[in-house]
Design brief:
Immunoglobulin-like; 3-stranded mixed sheet; elongated; 240 residues; 4-stranded antiparallel sheet; alpha+beta; 17% strand; 2 domains
Length: 240
């Protein structure tokens, strides 16, 4: 009898939740562009961690998806800052048309853009200490009913895998961003002479993990990167 009652309550909750979710869905139509050049960006992943649904922008930067009104979507494209948006606080509509721009991690020497002011070591250090953190929306949601089976399901479900994938992408994007800020600082202060077009290759050459950048002192990080720069410069021909 107790089991039958539990099943009945669960069935009512399911029907209520399903009805609510149908009334709460909205359509998103949008375009994504480069925040500096305003060029349309293709291949941007629009990721919904709650539903594990991912869509990508087409060759003209357009995308379309259906979400719950309270969902938060993440925008990811290698070489750009990961961004997120939600329509939860917007006026209620069935369809939203959005134009979104995302900021590149590196402007590139050939682009005619305004370069933002160089950060100090203190500012970079404050960012270094935050490495490895990800938006709280990507944390594993608390389960109302816990059991070994439900825990295994969550662990191996597409939703969990999608969250972990996105968290890894965000951590790597932040690692490369801070690395580039350090390289900008070293270049500006005459410690290295590395062209910006070589930044990505040099970062891969160094292969310094998040833990190294997060927990070491400015002195240790600077010493290591300059030593790696000298090796890289001789191998690549930048240093004669």
């Amino acid at each position: 009898m107790r089991l039958a009652h539990s099943i009945f309550v669960f069935f009512l909750l399911f029907l209520t939740s399903n009805a609510f979710s149908q009334n709460d869905t909205v359509r998103i139509r949008g375009s994504i562009s480069d925040g500096y050049t305003y060029r349309a960006l293709s291949g941007v992943s629009i990721i919904n961690p709650k539903s594990s649904n991912t869509v990508a922008t087409d060759s003209k930067g357009f995308f379309e998806t259906t979400i719950h009104r309270t969902d938060t979507l993440f925008l990811f494209l290698p070489g750009y800052r990961t961004a997120k948006f939600s329509v939860a606080d917007s006026a209620k509509k069935n369809t939203y048309v959005l134009h979104i721009s995302i900021e590149p991690l590196s402007t590139g020497l050939s682009q005619g853009v305004i370069i933002k002011g160089q950060k100090s070591l203190e500012e970079i250090e404050a960012e270094r200490k935050k490495l490895g953190t990800t938006p709280k929306e990507l944390d594993r949601p608390a389960m109302v009913i816990t059991s070994p089976i439900s825990a295994l399901y969550e662990m191996f479900s597409g939703q969990a895998q999608q969250r972990e994938k996105l968290k890894g992408q965000i951590k790597e994007a932040n690692r490369r961003k801070i690395f580039k800020e350090l390289l900008n600082y070293y270049n500006a202060n005459g410690l290295i002479d590395l062209p910006e077009k070589n930044y990505e290759e040099f970062i891969d050459f160094c292969n310094l993990p998040i833990e190294f950048l997060k927990y070491n002192s400015d002195y240790e990080i600077t010493k290591t990167i300059i030593a790696q720069y000298n090796k890289y410069g001789r191998q690549s021909g930048l240093i004669k």
